[in-house]
Amino acid sequence: MALSEQPAIKNQIKQFVAEELLYTGGDLPFDDDASFLESGAVDSLGVMKLVTFVQEVFGIEITPAEVTPDNFDSIKQLTAFVEQKVAVAPPPSLRQVPSVFALR
Questions:
Q1: Structural domains in the chain?
Q2: What is the signed CA dihedral for 67, 70, 75, 79, rounded to 10 degrees?
């Protein structure tokens, strides 16, 4: 992934957390490496919202085994996880179409 893309990923994650989980209108009350769980900013439902957001916005698949504090417990950790997944994800044109939409 190009370095120019990294801030965009972090900014999108920060905006989502601020607006959809904390309802702060864009401002985060903690640093990028602060724990979501320790701060009480994100609960289990919030983690599931983060998973859905990341999958939909960045076009990556996240397995249940990947939903861990190591990957989802801060802006910094989640950004690194998404960057790593995006770097190894196939281009959109090569992704498999869900069977619901497959032509028969």
A1: 3-86 (1.10.1200.10)
A2: -80
Listed in sequence order, the residues at least 6 apart from 18 whose beta carbon sits closer than 8 Å to its beta carbon are: 24, 25, 26, 27, 28
Query: In b/e form, how buried is each residue of 71-87, taking b as 16+ CB within 10 angstroms?
Result: bbbbbebbbbbbeebbe
Q: Token pair of 20, please? A: 């959809």
Comparing 38 with 2, which gets the higher pLDDT? 38
State pTM to two decimals: 0.78
- Per-residue pLDDT averaged across 62-83, rounded? 96
State yes or no: pLDDT of 80 exceeds 50.
Answer: yes
From 50, 68, 70, select the one nearest 60 (Cα to Cα). Answer: 50
